[in-house]
Design a protein that fits this description.
This protein has 165 residues and is mainly beta. The chain folds into two domains: 76 residues, Glycoprotein, Type 4 Pilin (2-Layer Sandwich), CATH 3.30.700.30; 68 residues, RNA polymerase II/Efflux pump adaptor protein, barrel-sandwich hybrid domain (OB fold (Dihydrolipoamide Acetyltransferase, E2P)), CATH 2.40.50.100. It is globular, with a radius of gyration of 18 Å. The protein has one helix and 16 strands. The N and C termini lie far apart (41 Å). The longest helix has 8 residues.
């Protein structure tokens, strides 16, 4: 069963065909062979279809920001077998993917947002991460206070439908 990958606003079908001896992916019907390349401690170099690609990646909740070949990409992967992940990605809640501390509230309760708007910033394992609205709506409630710590899986923000005018 293919997984849905959203990259730069476009939807793609992603399927893992094989994991060993190399990673083989089918993206929108086209096969790609991916091999990690390790040089010392450098882990941001891979080979895709015989071509070396240097990349940098950072996660922001369910979204991963990837920079390669001088371009930045926003990637979100939704596995249809993971119903909980689908609810989080398209639902009414912004959930903590890891424990941390709320360090900034960017959008206040009652403010309207569109999908992708940064709502809060958290610190986790000495990293700052912006968490974005998974859909358009209005901030119904911010469930944690500024500088409050939280556990993995904690609901940080709840959304409600935007008010029609």
């Amino acid at each position: 069963m293919p997984t849905v990958m959203h990259m730069d606003g476009q939807e793609h079908q992603l399927e893992i065909v094989a994991r060993r001896p190399e990673l083989v992916l089918r993206v929108d019907g086209a096969l790609h062979i991916v091999r990690p390349i390790t040089r010392g401690f450098q882990l941001n170099l891979i080979e895709v279809d015989g071509r070396q690609v240097r990349f940098h990646a950072a996660s922001e909740g369910a979204v991963v920001h990837v920079r390669c070949d001088g371009r930045s990409h926003r990637v979100a992967i939704h596995d249809p077998r993971d119903a909980r992940g689908m609810v989080r990605a398209a639902g009414d809640e912004i959930v903590a993917e890891m424990p941390g501390t709320l360090v900034a509230i960017v959008k206040a309760q009652g403010e309207e947002v569109v999908a992708g708007d940064v709502v809060v910033t958290i610190e986790s394992m000495k990293l700052l991460m912006n968490l974005s609205a998974p859909r358009a709506g209005r901030i119904a409630r911010i469930a944690v206070e500024l500088n409050q710590t939280f556990d993995k899986g904690a609901i940080l923000v709840m959304l409600e439908p935007a008010v029609e005018t």
